[in-house]
């Protein structure tokens, strides 16, 4: 008896190029129709339907039905974590590569990793929090939040002691697949991303995983964390 049957199944499903593109397209946590996923993967609607059926059966996707329409999303944060972790495996950078498209540059700078901030900006924010002693790396790929950090988050409008720890704790280190450094994830990372959007510092794209920093956001990030516009 194979003690890990689901591992081989999940690996097989993710390994297909078209399926991997559709999965990565859903890393912002939003639900999307089959047609949009088919377009992103460069395949026909019929082929996309077949792939989506397999991903559903394999437990990587969930589906919502609204009238005659079906919308697909990742089955949960554990799928997003697996995808980001796998994407970080491999050479740090190719020896030669084509120039990045505008969309690729935007995603590399700042994007949603399912429910928290990722990309260059996510890593920069996390680094600034550590440099100021607001986050402290801990065992098990977690971050501890010392009193100074709790006070800083509270001043921003986020009460750390009211958050419910997840399976991996309150604050988790998530390896960014483009920057190869850690970003803040877990319940604290989720709420920080939500708060920065609510304050108007960040704006999420409606069509991609890209995140933009508003002028107000740059002012706030400079004041709070010493981050300059780029």
Give the topology, please.
Elements lengths: L4 H11 L1 H9 L6 E2 H8 L3 H13 L3 E6 L2 E6 L2 H11 L14 H8 L1 E3 L2 E3 H13 L4 E3 L3 E3 L2 H10 L15 E4 L6 E4 H13 L3 E3 L6 E3 L1 H11 L5
Antiparallel strand pairs: 1-3, 2-3, 4-5, 6-7, 8-9, 10-11
Helix pairs in contact: 2-3, 3-4
Number of domains: 2
- The overall pLDDT average reads 89
Query: Strands across the major sheet, in which order?
Result: 1-3-2
Largest sheet: 3 strands, antiparallel
The percent range for helix content is 40-55%
Tell me about this structure:
Strand 6 and strand 7 form a beta hairpin. The chain has helices spanning 5-15, 17-25, 34-41, 45-57, 77-87, 102-109, 119-131, 147-156, 186-198, 215-225, and strands at 32-33, 61-66, 69-74, 111-113, 116-118, 136-138, 142-144, 172-175, 182-185, 202-204, 211-213. With 230 residues, the protein is an alpha+beta fold. Helices cover 47% and strands 17% of the residues. A three-stranded antiparallel beta sheet has the order 1-3-2. The protein folds into two domains: 5-87, Arc Repressor Mutant, subunit A (Orthogonal Bundle); 102-225, no CATH class. The mean pLDDT is 89.
Structure summary:
By secondary structure, this protein is α+β, with helices and mostly antiparallel strands. It contains ten helices and eleven strands. The protein folds into two domains: 5-87, Arc Repressor Mutant, subunit A; 102-225, no CATH class.
